[in-house]
């Protein structure tokens, strides 16, 4: 029976699961990040690409692996620290999701599909956009799910054509970069994909789907399936993100140095594929952004509904407030929203990365005490980066230069690692 599962169905299951994972992380809003990163990195594009894919590909895929191990929900990721901490963490994650990446989809839609063709205000776009999001969130339908399955291949085909055209037609004569910290800059820009957060929030949906489709498979077979699918999805994401960063680097001298993220993506698309393909890409990206916004609002409303005894009223109020917040924040340009997101990401992303890694390692290396100490140290050493991102760290940052990687805004990494090692050594000896 085990052989029958692995041979006839494994290839199909692997393909379906890998594409589902790829689609989960292949957010339309994320596409505006890599080209500008490459545009600024020049000859150091490969270092930036590696950094970007650490936080934008590797960590999210590990988040799915952790879900496969836990077979639970977002709450289970942090419950070893304490149930109260886990609840607070869940609220923070959903608050950030509904306040930043959701409104950003409206801003991307305005700059990609509305502003270049119509003289319309961003407030009007945001208002109409989130009115429709609210309608779809209240009246659940499978139309967007079906549409989402078509949008990802469409966007992917256009992007691959754009990347291939740039690679095959441009001279690999890169301009020297002035970027002083390319690898860490790539990692920090990868935070803006929100994919690590996406992994812990909606990764459980992938696990549930696999459990429903592979009822005869053993726990280990499903873990291997997820591991292989994650590898293939990760390779796909690496090629797309790396290709977009390379493409941006190739066009470093073709646009104004102050060009915005959305304008650069549109400009490269027009130069490589022409105006028609650029228009099609704008439409597809906008539709994909819309499905993402509906998913975020619906997911957050479901969470609040569950916290209030499955109250429909709580669901509707959350959906309304989420869309109202989307209108208020979504009217600002993409660059501003990305800047505003930095402080929250400097605080929540290190915690999320640590929780993912602690849930991936074997259980005998991740006792509750280890969770508590490592997460506590991560929070403590993330505070200076958080304060620095809001302009309040000027008085304390000079005293923290002795912390390795603090100059890269990742001063939490080594303390967390040391705490992990010593906590496990202490637990084994006493």
From TrEMBL:
Its main location: membrane. The keyword Cytoplasm does not apply. It is a multi-pass membrane protein. It holds the Pfam family Branch_AA_trans. The keyword Cell division does not apply. InterPro entries: Brnchd-chn_aa_trnsp_Livcs. This is Branched-chain amino acid transport system II carrier protein. It comes from Flagellimonas yonaguniensis.
């Amino acid at each position: 029976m085990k052989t029958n599962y692995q041979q006839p169905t494994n290839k199909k299951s692997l393909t379906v699961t890998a594409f589902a994972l790829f689609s989960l992380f292949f957010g339309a809003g994320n596409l505006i990040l890599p080209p500008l990163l490459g545009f600024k990195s020049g000859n150091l594009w490969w270092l930036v690409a590696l950094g970007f894919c650490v936080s934008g590909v590797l960590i999210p895929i590990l988040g799915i692996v952790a879900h496969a191990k836990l077979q639970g929900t977002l709450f289970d990721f942090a419950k070893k620290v304490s149930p109260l901490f886990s609840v607070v963490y869940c609220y923070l994650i959903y608050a950030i999701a509904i306040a930043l990446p959701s409104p950003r989809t409206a801003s991307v839609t305005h700059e990609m599909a509305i502003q270049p063709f119509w003289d319309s205000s961003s407030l009007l776009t945001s208002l109409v956009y989130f009115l429709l999001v609210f309608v779809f969130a209240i009246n659940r339908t499978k139309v967007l799910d079906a549409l989402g399955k078509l949008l990802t291949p469409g966007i992917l085909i256009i992007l691959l054509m754009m990347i291939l055209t740039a690679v095959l037609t441009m001279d690999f004569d890169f301009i020297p970069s002035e970027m002083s910290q390319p690898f860490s800059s790539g990692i920090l820009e990868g935070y803006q994909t929100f994919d690590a957060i996406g992994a812990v929030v909606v990764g459980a949906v992938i696990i549930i789907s696999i459990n429903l489709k592979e009822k005869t498979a053993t726990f280990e077979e499903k873990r291997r399936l997820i591991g292989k699918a994650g590898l293939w999805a990760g390779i796909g994401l690496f090629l797309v993100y790396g290709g977009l960063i390379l493409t941006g680097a190739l066009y470093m001298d073709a646009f104004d140095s102050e060009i915005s993220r959305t304008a650069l993506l549109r400009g490269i698309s027009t130069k490589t594929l022409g105006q028609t393909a650029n228009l099609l890409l704008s439409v597809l990206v906008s539709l994909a952004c819309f499905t993402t916004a509906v998913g975020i609002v619906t997911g957050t409303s479901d969470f609040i509904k569950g916290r209030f005894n499955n109250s429909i009223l709580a669901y509707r109020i959350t959906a309304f407030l989420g869309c109202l917040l989307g209108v208020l924040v979504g009217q600002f340009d993409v660059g501003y929203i990305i800047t505003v997101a930095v402080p929250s990401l400097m605080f929540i992303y290190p915690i999320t990365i640590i929780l993912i890694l602690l849930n991936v390692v074997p259980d005998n290396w991740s006792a509750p005490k280890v969770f508590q100490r490592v997460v506590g140290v991560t929070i403590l050493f993330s505070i200076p980066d958080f304060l620095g991102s809001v302009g309040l760290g000027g008085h304390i940052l000079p005293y923290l230069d002795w912390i390795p990687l603090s100059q890269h805004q990742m001063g939490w990494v080594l303390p967390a690692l040391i705490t992990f090692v010593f906590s496990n050594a202490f637990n084994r000896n006493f």
